[in-house]
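Q: My labmate handed me this sequence with no annotations at all. I'd like to see what the chain might look like in three dimensions before we decide whether it's worth expressing. Could you predict it?
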Amino acid sequence: MIKRFICHLILVIIICISFVISCFAQNKLSDSLKLTVKQAEDLFIKKNLQLIAQHYNIGIAEAQVITAKIFPNPDFGFNNGIYANNLTNGSVLGERSVSISQLFTTSGKRNKNIRLAKITVDQAKYQFFDLLRTLKFTLRNDFYNIYFQEQSAKVYNEEISSLSKTLTVFKEQYIKGNIAKKEVLRIQSQLYSLQAEFNNLQINIDTVQSEFRLLIKASPDEIVEPIVSYDLDGKDIVASVSYQRLLDSAYLNRYDLKLAKVNLDFNSVNLQLQKAMAVPDFSLSLNYDRLGAYGTNFLGAGIEFNLPFFNRNQGGIKQARIAIDQSKVQLQNQQNQIESDLATNFKAALRLEKLSNGFDPHFKTDFTNLIQEVFKNYEKHNISMLEFLDFYDSYKTNTLQLNTLQLNRVISLEQLNYVTGTSFFNQ
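A: Here is what I predict for the chain of 427 residues:
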């Protein structure tokens, strides 16, 4: 009896533990992370691994400046006698010689290398800030994509829930013989179509959620819930900023353009360095020989350098000149790309702004109220099933289009921020 009681008690404990673990797991899977776009940016700046890794390149480049500033070490040599034939100056063990030499660079090679190293630091910084601009654009795009797609998902949820209830009622009425089977099948067909569309939408949301979590280094179990206050309706935001102002800002603040300019500076300094490399460096040396061939305690000095008869760094100089021409072309291409991108995105943003502001701000609310009345009238058999489904399909389509329009308008503003390198239109 006691054993049976203990077994039952253990079984109950196991069931309770399993239930607690199951509940914890469900809660863990459904953890939500509510964020404003500003909070998301703060997490991104602090935690994004791509940014952290890229920032290390700045430290590496700064270390190269230290290396460039350091003078070469002097060379030291020591020789002690061990064995020799025909000694003339006493024991070979007394023979010792010492030499020291120092390399000296010419034509300002050291200063030119320092300048190149400093430019490399600028290159690393511009690459970092350009990556920051690109990832920030992706972050904000994902943020608003999640929000507006979730708004569309709510429409699907409401319509699927409503049609599911309707289908249940229709099946009951069909069993009673009050309606034809084709009406049940029509509702079923509409419901399955909505469920398939909703599934595709959910896959898109999950994909964007995954990318967004990676950007802010959130847990894979967390579901991001963007907090957005959309207040662009009726506002001429893009039209209030001139195209020339946007273009000037892009020229001033685009770090990829700054990188193209500094690459030209790098190659210009590199050409000077390559020309300086044609001038040979020299070494000064001081030698001491205790038992030299010409007498004891011999002290001598010397100089050593290459004779530039054949190699005058012709290839390096030519490469540097070609690199300058290449950098000029790349800089011009970057400027043209900025102008083209800005013109295209500015026109698109103006067009979306005009289209969005042309919508009645009460349209969505009025249409939602209308569809609720349609559902009531259908339950009272005041309208046919085809009219009911047509209204529902129209409601879904228009609501989704409105969400897409609002998303596209926000994204167009983010695109202008990205192209200009300036937060003109941050929400």
